[in-house]
Structure formats: structure tokens, C-alpha cells
Amino acid sequence: MTDISPPTSAPHWDELDRNAQELIPALAKQQLMLATAESCTGGLICGLLTGIPGSSDVIDRGFVTYSNEAKQDLVNVTAASLENYGAVSPQVAAEMAAGALANSRADIAISVTGIAGPGGGTPQKPVGTVHFGLAIKGQDVRTFSALFEAMDRTDVRLASVAYCLKLISNFLCMPKGR
């Protein structure tokens, strides 16, 4: 799977909706079920996808894991990962995606954890830092990272949704035997 460049500006909701409307039939065509594990997006991805007719055939469930406790309880993120790497890290994004896959009937799971702002950033993890996980049955979890600079809270969240949709779409376009 090739790397995907993160958006440099936040997309409009209708652009996200168009992308999501293309994703639902693509998942159906490949007979794949999707689960989401969302922290900084707070369920926006799953909400967007389930607003589309036919989504019940391809969306299994969405986990909103905003707190560290929810990450541990719902998608099996370890206390050690939270302590050693922090909630906003590739390691936690990977565990979130793996946990969403393990705790669902899905074939593919996407996760997102980040700092949407306006507070919460540090020099090492500035506002706009977002990590993503992509878990596919029978494969190692892949992680991706983005820094959405000069965006407000809403824009970071929308850009994160757009990036997740691109990750899923990119996976669906890969040749079989991925």
C-alpha cells in the first residue's frame, strides 16, 4: 500500500459525503465489512458512512474511544502502550485498529487518534498530530501519521476523516492478495 499524502486543508462536508458514497459500494463489491475506532474524530467517520443507504451491509460497528479508559475497555489498548507512548501515537493507533478488528465481525478496521486542539499539543506532539491504524484480517496492522498544521479543531477532525476515507479507498483499490 502506497503512502497517502494528508490533505493540506480541511475538506467540505459534501466532499467527504461524496467520497463516503463511493466507499460503500466498493466495500460491498468486495464483500468486506468495516469497523472504526475513533478518538479525536469522535465517531464522525462511522456517522458519515452509516448515513449512506446500503451501509448496513458493510459497516459492522464503530467504537468511539475518546478516553484512555474507552481505548482499553473497547479495543484492547494496553495500559503499557498508553503509559510508554501516549494516547496519540502510532502504537496506540495500531492497537486500536487491531482491537476494533478483534472485537467485531469486520474484515478491515480503521483507527484514528490525534490532537485536534486548540490545546493539548506539545513540542514533540503539536496540535494537528494524528495517527491512523489500518487492520486487515490476516495481515500486520499498518500505521500512518499526519500533521495537519494551521488548522482549527474542526478542520483537523475533518481532515482526519478525509485521510481515513482515502486509506480505506486505497486499500480497496489494491490488487487481490494484498
Quick description:
Residues 20-171 form the CinA C-terminal domain. By secondary structure, this protein is α/β, with parallel strands linked by helices. Helix content is 40%, strand content 18%.
Description:
- The protein is an alpha/beta fold and 178 residues long.
- The protein has a single domain (13-172), classed as CinA-like (Maf protein), CATH 3.90.950.20.
- It has helices spanning 13-29, 44-50, 68-75, 79-85, 90-102, 153-172, and strands at residues 34-38, 59-64, 108-114, 129-136, 142-147.
- The protein has a 5-stranded mixed beta sheet with strand order 2-1-3-4-5, with helices on both faces.
- Strand 1 (34-38), helix 2 (44-50) and strand 2 (59-64) form a beta-alpha-beta unit.
- Helix 1 (13-29) runs parallel beside helix 6.
- The longest helix has 20 residues, at 153-172.
- This is CinA family protein.
